[in-house]
Amino acid sequence: MIIERIAYISKLITSKDTHNVKIITGIRRVGKSTLLEQYKEKIINTFSISKKQIIEYDLNDKIILKSLTWEKLVKEVRNNVILNKNNYLFIDEVQELKDFHKAIITLFEDKNINLDIYLTGSNSKMLSSELGTYFTGRHRDILLLPITYKEIYDNIWPDKDKIESLNKYLMLGGLGKIIPFINNEDEVKEEIKNIFEDSIYKDIFNKHKIRDKNSFLKTVKYIFYCVGNKFSIQKVSNYFKSNEKNNTAHTTIKKYLDWMQEAHLICKIEYFDIRGKKILKTSPKYYAGDLGILSYSQDFKNINYGYKLENLVYLELLKRYDKVYTHISKQGIEVDFLCYKNGEITYFQVTQNLIDESESNSNWDREVKNLEKIKDSNKKIILTLNLSNTVLDSGIKIINLYDWLLNEKYSHHKFPPHEI
């Protein structure tokens, strides 16, 4: 079973035949190769492009890579293009080729051929550092996120109970590699383990020549344990000193974080000051790049359910909005997410259950009244599993999380007044 990534194919089509390089990045096995294949079929069928106009290199193939140099790649592409026609170059995992940037720059500058270039890679920094300076303003970066809960629900689980399906998604995530056997939980868990180890060993250990692997792996586990919380390198260092008898330096922990971000294992979300319109120099939060990877780091135990929901919402917001931050006001009121799109701001709070203020275990003050204290006219939304869609007198929308995940238009719907 292959799920068509319609939104990403549309993004690529809007950039088709424009004079910029398309760079697709994402965590290992998220489905970058599959996306290129889907896009290829789309342009062949929609725009009557001949297969001869498409030149492909899969640099995951060690046999191809072994005999390939950047000079040879340039020569082969030039020999295979059809003159006076648009040609399309797809290179999968381009960073595997030594000096790949020289090949891309040479082909991009060649005025004798019409070539639309598409690259994929698992390491965002390597691609941006090698190509970013030269192609400033002439490349389009596309971060391929895991397959969403909605995409899996609509294509694979349409008859499955929503609670059961959501819990399964929170456990297994949405990496493209697991989709063909997603209903075989043991096989999926083994595949996630392999993907995690590949990301760690190939993208981090080998690339950065890490000697103290044990220290790195313990840091990774601690980072995943802290998803959704403000992250302080000082606290991590103190924790290891007191609990692990490990004196890992601040600079080393910072490098570990950077390398995990480059491999898309984690995503950093920063605090944004809406009044000053600037990013605050305070400790950021981190979320996992995929929920299956997060579960693997926690030995697939059902822990931190609320933070997994928050992580799920964060990944969905990245897909729906232009910018996603977290927010804390001058009064110390913290909001899970502050999102920008088309010049508009929307606040989001995420809670597993929203409990009315009349109940002894109420979280109404923390989730609702804190939002009401933010005196601006921007949209305010609370996502929760236990309530139906409604709107409060203050204008805050309460949206059922299942509905929101399965229909992104719910953020803009009008709902009946609150009658809990």
Description:
The strands form 4 sheets. A 6-stranded mixed beta sheet has the order 10-11-12-13-15-14, sandwiched between helices. A 5-stranded parallel beta sheet has the order 2-3-4-1-5, with helices on both faces. It has a two-stranded antiparallel sheet with strand order 6-9. Strand 3, helix 5 and strand 4 form a beta-alpha-beta unit. With about 425 residues, the protein is of the alpha/beta class. The protein is about 40% helix and about 20% strand. The mean pLDDT is about 90.
**Which stretches of 5+ consecutive residues score pLDDT under 50?**
none
pLDDT averaged residue by residue: 90
Strand % is 15-25%
Radius of gyration, CA atoms, in whole angstroms: 23 Å
User: How would you classify the quaternary structure?
Assistant: single chain
- Span of the ends, CA to CA: 42 Å
Spatial strand sequence of the major β-sheet: 10-11-12-13-15-14
The biggest sheet amounts to:
6 strands, mixed
